[in-house]
Amino acid sequence: MAGVVHITTMVLIFGLGCQALDLLKATATLGDPPSTPTVHCWCSSYPNVTLCSWPEPLLSQPTHYLATYSERHSKGGAKMCHLIPPSSSSTSLTTVPSSSAFEQLWQCHLPNLKLLTEYILNITAVHSGGSSSHLTSFMLEDIVKPDPPVDVRVSPMATKNLLVGWSPPPTWKSMDIFPLKYQILYQWVSRGTTKSINLGPFENTKTELKGLIPGRTYRFQVSCALPR
Ligand SMILES: *[C@@H]1O[C@H](CO)[C@@H](O)[C@H](O)[C@H]1NC(C)=O
Ligand SMILES: *[C@@H]1O[C@H](CO)[C@@H](O)[C@H](O)[C@H]1NC(C)=O
């Protein structure tokens, strides 16, 4: 086939309650408190890879953090959330959502969480002027967010058809509990306007696209979706 094919994969998440975190309380204890961290949590692999992140404040004040988590309806004590400072977080367990690539993010890792359990994360920022604790609650079900599919490939079929295939995210170990589905977005430019078509969700890891125009450049995005 004469067509030029341009392939990309992107982190796109559909139909998930990623915004389900709610800030329960922020308390300042002493003096001029450090700014409130905006905490974002996601689980890229059930049950052991849940990360919470928050931006490093731009203030020059050195801040350090204490991060603990506990089950809301349990008498058990709080456990330490394993802190990962900004300099090392880019190489950590999974991809950081790239809302702002230049922001330095603190992360902490919560291992081995349970389903149907409300967790409370307590991030305490401490600096010489005081400290403040920020409580965030979440249920694992609401923050499950798989990494993107990998190894996207495109091969020609008939003159106007292409076969698009991909592999599940290798970090996703729980197909039995949270089976993944996939969606494809493909885009092209026609007379200066971008057109796009969304397909899916499918369980298959390949699909045939029909009616493509030879010579046109197409851009494909394959994303994971969790059935709800
Ligand atoms: C998760 O971690 C626990 C112990 O921390 C381990 O026993 C278990 O096998 C791990 N599960 C997976 C799916 O890696
Ligand atoms: C949050 O953590 C800080 C520091 O560990 C602790 O002093 C504070 O009592 C905790 N807050 C709650 C509500 O558990």
TrEMBL record:
Which cellular component appears as one GO term in the record? membrane
What are the alphabetically sorted keywords of the record? Glycoprotein, Repeat, Signal
Instruction: Tell me if Thylakoid is a UniProt keyword of this record.
Output: no
Q: Name one Pfam family in it.
A: FN3_IL27B_N
Q: Which GO terms describe its molecular function?
A: cytokine receptor activity
PANTHER family in the cross-refs: INTERLEUKIN-27 SUBUNIT BETA
Q: Which residues form the Fibronectin type-III domain?
A: 148-228
Assigned protein family: Belongs to the type I cytokine receptor family. Type 3 subfamily.
Q: PROSITE patterns of this UniProt entry?
A: FN3, HEMATOPO_REC_L_F3
Record's signal peptide? 1-20
What is the species of this protein?
Answer: Crenichthys baileyi (White River springfish)
Q: What is this protein called?
A: Fibronectin type-III domain-containing protein
